[in-house]
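Hi L.,

You mentioned the student needs an example of a multi-chain input paired with its predicted structure. This one should do, with 380 residues in total across all chains.
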Amino acid sequence: MILSALKKKLFVFFVVGAAASVATYAAVAIIDAISYNATPQSFSSGTLKLTQTDNGAGFTTAVSGLVPGDVVNRYATYTNSGTLAGQALTVSAADGASTLLTGDATKGLALTVSSCSVAWTPASGVCGGTTTPLLASTSLLTLKTTPGSLVTGAVSAGAVYYLQFGFTLPAQTETTTNGTLPGGTIQGLTSTITLTLRETQRTATTLNS
Amino acid sequence: MKRKLIGLAVALTLPISFSYAVITGVTTGGPLSTTSLSWIAAPVLLATDSNPGAALTINPVVRSNNATGGSYFSVKNFGTSTLNSFTISQIVSSTIVSIQMCSGVWTESSGACSGTITTVLTNTGSAVITITLAPGVSIRLRVNASGVGRSTTITAATSRSDVRSQTIVNS
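Structure written out for the whole complex:
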C-alpha cells in the first residue's frame, strides 16, 4: 500500500518535471545583432596573357636548304598583355615528327634567343637598341624536355619582348659515297618545330589595407 | 562507432591546408618546318640511271690506236644541294686505265670533245673534280684502257666541303 502510494508520487513528479522542462525549452529566444557593409566589396581577378606576333617571316615560313654551320634567325614579338605581372619566362620546343634535327643534342639544331630593346629589323638582323642575350646555344632536343629560362624575374604587365630566335645546324662533316648516305646522317631531314613561351603568375601576396 | 567519432573529431580539429594552382600565360609559335640539304653523288653508266647506291665497275673498250675507243660513264648529283666538287676514285685491275673529262661536250660515237680534254686520274687513286653540279645534273667522263681485259671500279664521294659554305640568314 505504501509502495503503491510512493509509485504514484514518483509518477506525478516525473510527469510534472518533464512538462516543466518542455515549457522552459520552448520559452528560450535568441537575440542577435547584425551589421553589414552598405557598399558591397568588389573583388576582381587579374588576367595573365602572353601573346606572340611574328616579325618578318616568323615561325610560319619554312626553313629549307640547311647545311651544317648555317644560322637562320627568325623574329617574333611577345607581349604580356594581361593585367597581371608574370614571372619566369621560359621557352620549350616540340616537334611533330622527330628526326635528328630535333633528336640529337650534338648534331641537331640548336637555339639561341636574344632580345632587343626595340623591334628587330628582320631583313638585316639589326637591333636598333640594346641587345640582351637571353638563352645561350641550347639543343632543341634539350628544349623538348627542359624549358630554357629567358627571364628569371618579373615580367611586368604590358611588357613587350622583341626576340630573335637563332636556329643553328652545328658544323659537322659527313661523306656520302656512291649515293649512299652515311649512318646517322643529318642530311635530307625535315622537322617541324613548335616553340612555346610560358610565364607564370607573379608570386601570390597577402595585402592588408 | 566510438573510434570513428573520435577520428572524425580529431580530423576536424586539424588545420586545413589549401593547395592552389598557379596561373600561366602560354603562347606558341609555329610549327616551323626545317629541312636540311643532302650531298649525294654516284657513278652511273647513263645519266638517266637511278641512284645505284654502289660503285660502278667498267670493262672499258680499249682505246689504244682507236679514236673511237673508250667507255663513258656519268657522275650524277642525286642530292638536293648543288655540288661544287666531288672526289672520284678508281681501283684498276691492271695498268693503264685513265679517266678523262671534257670541258665541252663529248661526241661518244667519234670520241671527240668540243672543248679541252683533261686526264683527271690515271690508274688506281683518287682526285677531286671541281665542277658545279646542280641537283639532278651529271658530268660525263671517259675511261680509257690501254689493254684488253682490264677493269676499273669507280667510286664517287662527296663531303660537306663539296657544297656551299655556311650562311647566316635573317628573315
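You could point out the following to them. DSSP finds three helices and twelve strands in chain A. Chain A has a mean pLDDT of 91.

Best wishes,
N.
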